[in-house]
Specification:
The chain has about 300 residues and is an alpha/beta fold. The protein contains ten helices and eleven strands. β9, α8 and β10 form a beta-alpha-beta unit. α1 (about 15-30) crosses α3 (about 60-70), α1 (about 15-30) runs parallel beside α10 (about 280-300) and α3 packs parallel to α4. The two termini are about 10 Å apart.
Length: about 300
């Protein structure tokens, strides 16, 4: 199993360089990947959490992290495609794939904030169809030669977009979401990247993906990635609310949770520190927690 950590670009940290430096810490500690979250506006639940504190741009922070690291994969968890443009994004991602020498992972989603959709001009109820066409456009632009697309939203012929991605045919596309449309969408690409699902909930959904893969002559054994994206909470003692996912408690409890995810076929655990306590004391406190996880969970996994 591979282990990743989501950089706190969405946690109101003032200095974005401090955010990117966490990627260096993760690489040093043996994590396999680092990730960034994505929203454009402090709106809805994002504003409730951050107020007017910074939510740093996902791809800018990820590029800065790429420059500071050599080994870890670099992922988006997740890019909300209805907030973006496929031609611009295809060029940005291909360029980042080259800068990182093929370390990019493209997590994508449809979004869950109607207010943000409204502010950015994409009807919320159309976001699924928008995302499907968006991915089709990027794949066409990334293919060798020129691209021709005749879709509902984008229509062009003989367009050349360069560079093509470093990795052929393109970086793995990992689809976020827990509902049936997202599961079917994930099966059309290279992986599933759901948020905060316990093992039993993931196990109930995986047969949908398996059926879709089988219909296309594929299976999860063909390199399909199954990610579990979870809040990591290493603080024990009294809790003022139940955990949102089972990655909490003692080292023994964490190792047990890892085993339960492995049993259902999870290939990657992508952790984040969303608790307000996680950043109390700044980066040094966060790194202390990561060091504890690396020593108590990651190292035994590798031994």
């Amino acid at each position: 199993m591979r282990f990743g950590f989501t950089l706190p670009n969405n946690m109101g940290v003032t200095d974005p360089d401090e955010v990117a430096e966490v990627a260096v810490d993760c690489e040093r500690l043996g994590f396999d990947s680092v990730w960034v979250a994505h929203h454009v506006l402090n709106i809805g639940y994002v504003r409730e959490r951050l107020g007017d504190r910074p939510y740093h741009d996902a791809l800018t922070v990820l590029t800065w992290a790429a420059a500071k690291t050599e080994r870890v994969e670099l992922g988006t968890s997740v890019l909300v495609l209805p907030y973006l443009h496929p031609v611009n994004l295809a060029k940005q991602l291909a360029t980042l794939d080259h800068l990182s020498k093929g370390r990019l992972l493209v997590g994508v989603g449809v979004g869950s904030l109607p207010e943000e959709n409204a502010a950015l001009g994409v009807p919320y109820h159309e976001r699924g169809a928008f995302t499907d066409e968006f991915l089709m456009v990027m794949a066409a632009l990334w293919a060798p030669g020129s691209a021709t697309v005749h879709g509902e939203r984008w229509d062009f012929a003989d367009v050349v977009c360069t560079p093509k991605p470093f990795r052929s045919p393109h970086p793995p596309i990992l689809v976020g979401g827990n509902r049936a449309p997202a599961l079917r969408r994930a099966a059309r690409w290279q992986g599933w990247h759901p948020m905060r699902l316990p093992p039993e909930s993931m196990a109930k959904r995986l047969p949908v993906i398996d059926a879709e893969l089988a219909a296309a002559g594929r299976s999860r054994l063909d390199g399909f990635r199954v990610h579990a994206c979870l809040d990591l909470d290493l603080w024990t003692g009294p809790r003022d609310r139940p955990p949102r996912a089972p990655m909490h408690g003692t080292a023994e409890q964490l190792r047990d949770a890892v085993g339960r995810y492995r049993e259902i076929g999870v290939t990657d655990l992508v952790l984040s520190a969303m608790s307000p306590a996680a950043l109390e004391g700044g980066r040094s406190r966060l790194v202390e927690q990561l060091e504890h996880f690396a020593a108590e969970v990651l190292a035994p996994e590798r031994s």
